[in-house]
Amino acid sequence: MDKMEKSLLNHWGKLLVITGLFLSPMAHADEDISSFDELSGAGNQALVNQIGDSHSANISQQGMSNELYLAQTGYNTSLIASQQGVSNEILLLQSGSDIEASIQQTGYGNLVIANQLGTALEIDVTQNGYGNQAYIHQTGYENSVWIQQNGSGHVVSVAQWGSSQTAVITQGHASN
Question: Can you tell me the distance from the alpha carbon of 50 to that of 72, in angstroms, rounded to the nearest whole number?
Answer without folding.
Answer: 5
